[in-house]
Amino acid sequence: MNSSDLAEQSIVLQVVIGFLYPFMLLLGFYVILNGHYTPGGGFQGGSVLATLLVARYVVSPREDINSEELHRYQRIFLALILVAPAVVLFPGFLHSYPRIRPLYLTVMDLLIGVQVGFGVGVAVLRFAFFEGTGKTWRL
Prior knowledge:
Layout: H1 3-33, H2 42-59, H3 67-88, H4 93-96, H5 101-130
InterPro entries: CPA3_antiporter_subunitB, MnhB
Family: Belongs to the CPA3 antiporters (TC 2.A.63) subunit B family.
Keywords: Cell membrane, Membrane, Transmembrane, Transmembrane helix
């Protein structure tokens, strides 16, 4: 396979993934936001959102995404996932105000979905660019 074949494949991939990109984004948030009513939720929707980073890497395998920053955002969302139940569940807000349960579940699905999306994205970028190059990662 010569370089012109690779360039043609790259153009086809760019067009197809460029067309599908907004639909993948919409599907990811749809699965996240309807997760407490239907099968799905944060993890499944986050995995769909992570395909955006994977698709971007497939189309253009350049190291221009700051994976350290993505990893920082992932840790922030993980902290929010741990703090939100402590603020809402432990004081008994859901027991006292059962009407906020759908809002709480939606917020938790959204937090989990974004955290999973960042987490899988960081893992893909780490394996794609940094494995074996001596870069260190910390939690």
